[in-house]
Amino acid sequence: MTEIDAARFATLLHVYGRAGDTPAHLAALGGGDTPSRRAALEHLWSAVIHQGTPWTATPPAAVAVAALIGDPRLSGAANADLRANLLGFLAAVAEAGRSSDGLANLDTLASPVGFDVDSALLAALDADDEDAIYADEVLANAVYARAVLGCREITPTLLEAGLVHDRDTCRDLARDSG
Fold it and tell me: How far is residue 71's CA from residue 21's CA, in Å, rounded to a whole number?
């Protein structure tokens, strides 16, 4: 499995706030016991891609999951359900990258002119005030747009790896596994 940058995840968001807890869940997928793996799967589906909505932690978490799919520890019939669930997660991430929820130009929303998204986001995180992120419409839209664009960016990697075959498969796997 690829190295997980825990410090980076501490600056990213999932539905419940900072994603600092995500690296431990990702590690549990490859080496944890059954209850830890269940908790990790629940975390992926409930926090990282909550009801199909991506967060800034979604793309790097998906890259880590994609690396884990080929891990020998997950081979064999005993891990078939886990692998299917992880593939479903990756399909949901690919599907999230197709979404724009009616937002016209994600690139413009991700980096609005005259607004320093990174500084505003860091200030909210440093103040331990994730609510401030969502109270500011420009910042909230930027965070969402960056999450969707991040999913779009990694989707070709998932396709090249043969993990996600087509849009219909993505939707079917996401629906069946989520």
Answer: 22
